[in-house]
Every structure is written in structure tokens, then in C-alpha cells.
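Action item from last week, closing it out:
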Amino acid sequence: MPICSHCETRWTWKQTIKKTFTLSNKLECPSCGKIQYISKKSRKRISLLNLVILLPLLLNAVTSIEPLFNIALIFIFFMLSMVFMPFLTELSNEEEPLW
């Protein structure tokens, strides 16, 4: 779980999910109110985790699996990524460029 760089407060799973589902890359600490950013390392890890969601589409291109099974796999991978994403999130005081 992410820890605020200013007040050292550990965010809960629910707070992390709510804060990361915004269109802004600025995250406000629920405890001290300071602006935090998702670290470059975390953004890369979360991007790789999100690519796993598309794995059933690649599997479908290589094999001939049922479309309903493919949709179920995508849903399962999506739910798993939502469960694990807060554990991969780290915060920083300043916005870091991705590249």
C-alpha cells in the first residue's frame, strides 16, 4: 500500500483505489491533504499488470477458444489487477517523467 511522503501515513486499499481512478495524476493524501504523485516505477509496474488483461485476446488469436470463455478470462484478469494494483502503488513528492 502507498505511504504518503509527507506525513508517512499508509493509505488503505479503498483509498488507493478511489484516488487512482481519477483522470488527474495528482493524488491528494487523505490524511494531510498534500499532493502526491504515483512514482515512475509504480506506473511501469501497473502498466505491465494492465497488459495482462489483454492476454486472453492474444490467446484467442493463437488458439480457438470460446468467446464466452475469453470474456470470462478478461473479466477475471481485470478483477485480479484491481485487487493487486494498490499493492504496487508507490508515491513520490514530485511528478517524474515516465521515460
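Closing note: The longest helix spans residues 67-88.
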